[in-house]
Design a protein that fits this description.
The structure is a single chain. The protein is α+β, with helices and mostly antiparallel strands and 268 residues long. The protein has ten helices and ten strands. Strands 1-2-9-4-7-10 form a six-stranded antiparallel sheet. Strands 3-8-5-6 form a four-stranded antiparallel sheet, with no helix packed on it. The mean pLDDT is 89.
């Protein structure tokens, strides 16, 4: 097994935090996530990764990319069998901007990584296990290439396609018609996909259902109206943003903002 840690004492645009392969992986629980961006892949055996209330089975030659600070845990699928992994973690002052370009919000499961992705930890181990400033600066190019490999991966292509065909039409429809009565059936008519499928894809990308997004958007609009129209009655605002039941509106508003709409008006 090979493993190296190389967290520099000064800021760099991109740097390798740790890298390893042929690692006999034990259980790992990170309630607050990891402090760097994290790529993990199975080499031998099968693991289970729990993230965002999802259980993802990581079979040999499958990988997952986790953003920093995202709570997760992983362990061998069978405690009596060896789970061997390879991994690569990185950070830097430009890392967040690079991941924003990648378009991943929490994590990306990669069921069929390219050969280049799978070979990356082993191929770059020696180069990344260097501690000079020049060596760390040279890592930036390779880390950038790693992110581009993720960008080109079929899993992310599918992610972007689903985002374009399903989630964006739903969001655009909600943004335009939030004051009206909106159901899952109405949203399915927009996407032309089944309710079950569209809701699953939407939740995978945004980690809430379309109707939860609708509620959050209505509450955001209600807050804007409370600021812009303090003379309006709460019932009037409730109806204006699509809540037919004022008591339900008050309940949801307090759940999110910790105060009732009437109390919020007093703070204006």
């Amino acid at each position: 097994m090979r493993i190296a840690f190389n967290r520099p004492t000064q800021d760099f645009p991109l740097y390798c935090d740790s890298i390893g392969y042929h690692w006999q992986q034990g259980p790992m629980i990170r309630k607050n996530g990891y402090y760097a961006f994290h790529w993990l892949q199975s080499e031998v055996g099968t693991g289970v990764v729990e993230v965002e209330n999802q259980k993802i089975v990581l079979a040999p030659d499958q990988g997952i990319f986790l953003l920093k600070g995202v709570p997760h845990r992983y362990m061998s699928q069978n405690s009596r069998q060896t789970w061997q992994t390879a991994f690569f973690t990185f950070d830097g002052t430009l890392a967040r901007s690079l991941i924003t370009y990648l378009g991943v919000t929490k994590y990306l499961y990669v069921p069929k990584p390219s050969a280049e992705l799978l070979a990356f930890p082993m191929q770059k181990f020696e180069a990344f296990n260097q501690h000079s400033i020049a060596a760390i600066l040279d890592q930036s190019t390779e880390i950038y290439r790693f992110v581009m490999l993720l960008k080109q991966n079929e899993a992310l292509k599918a992610f972007n396609r689903q985002n374009k065909e399903i989630t964006m039409p739903i969001i655009e429809y909600i943004n335009q018609h939030y004051a009206q009565h909106i159901t899952n059936q109405a949203l399915a008519a927009v996407t032309q996909y089944s309710i079950t499928y569209q809701n699953r894809i939407f939740k995978q990308i945004y980690h809430i259902t379309p109707l939860q997004y609708l509620t959050n958007y209505r509450l955001q609009k209600a807050r804007e109206l409370l600021l812009a129209k303090p003379e309006w009655e709460v019932k009037h605002i409730s109806l204006a943003v699509g809540f037919q039941d004022t008591s339900q509106f008050i309940h949801q508003f307090k759940k999110v903002y910790r105060v009732t709409p009437q109390q919020f008006k007093k703070f204006i």
